[in-house]
User: Fold these one by one.
Assistant:
Number 1:
Amino acid sequence: MESKLKPWELVAIPLLLALLNLQNLASAVPQVPSYFIFGDSISDSGNNNKLAKLAKVNYPPYGIDFPEGPTGRYSNGRTVHDFIDYMLPFAESNEKNIFNGVNYASGATGIRDETGQHRIKNHKTIISRITSLMRNDSATKSLLSQCIYSIQIGSNGYLNNYFMSELYDTRLYSQCGYATLLVQQLSDQLKVIDIHFSTTQANAPPT
């Protein structure tokens, strides 16, 4: 039987169904309570704006395609994390929004302590706040066990460390030895970020 629908109608119907599906997804109940982001400039949503760093991008032409204009994002528009959800940077966090998640990412940060130890310290600060608000360590651990942790980091370990041997001791390492060092340090930091360590070591010094 020949269809009476016009060609444009054949295209419009699946497009409409797709839009309705996206609308349902947008209004769906969140699958996780919080979203925590660790990273460098690719993930930064404005933390460097309030840090004593030269790496700042809170001015045009950055953000020319972002609704709010320049925000400290190292891009013309959204970061990859913004496509999942908009998480406020740690610099703007408060008791009202930390349960949704926090973005700790900072442009020019890295794995080594010289360029990245503050992100672990900031996460411990947030965990301490959440624990204080919930007034229950077990409840805090239960909440954090359901969260998403996104970690994107590594390039600055070379850009701001390995290739700047005049400032750091990186000339002591071979390429393989330095890569092994970064992997080990990142592994140690992930253990600190892990929920089983976060709530029990909130006041421990950063690694």
Number 2:
Amino acid sequence: MISIIFASLAPSLALLCFFYLKDNYNSEPLGMVFRSFIFGVLLVFPILVIQYAFQEEGLLISPLSQAFISAALFEEFFKWFILFYTVYKHAVFNDPYDGIVYGVSVSLGFATMENVFFLLAYGVDLAFIRALLPVSSHALFGVIMGYYLGKAKFGEKRQQRKLLFFSLLIPWVLHGIYDYILYVQRYWIYMMLPFMIFLWWLALKKVKLANKKTVNDENVKNLY
């Protein structure tokens, strides 16, 4: 059991540290980051109940509906909901990059608990591939969600609703594509590899843009 917990937690902490240390302006309070991580852990339980209920009723059983609704929509919506109501309106969310830090922490909390259940069921031998794919993909979806939340909060007010919508829509679509590749493609690895490269490229681009926005905003403040 200890090996399973360690194998589930280690890649999540490594990724969380990576994106946390990418903040070029000011680091977020660790207590708030930890709280967001725990919220992500707790999200697994209601989502599993909802997914199980749909499965028992024979609903959302096609590969398309499982990928885009049962997995992607439920998971990304609940993560977005937690971020919006516990972080977005909080005083600690005070620069655009903060959205990425908290988006990643909630997503990795979820991925860690999901990983524990998976490794308990199928064995710790799968820990490495789980770290490369599900855990890292959740982190990257969190980067993109957090980027648009940061842009919504600190961008133009007239764009706020659209950006909030994008903060859910884009991670949902990307998550759905990820799961659909796993569900229906016989040679899924040949599609997953370029898709994961694209996800990393997109997420790191958002990290750079969020940091640039933060620095530029701070420079403007220093003029007054």
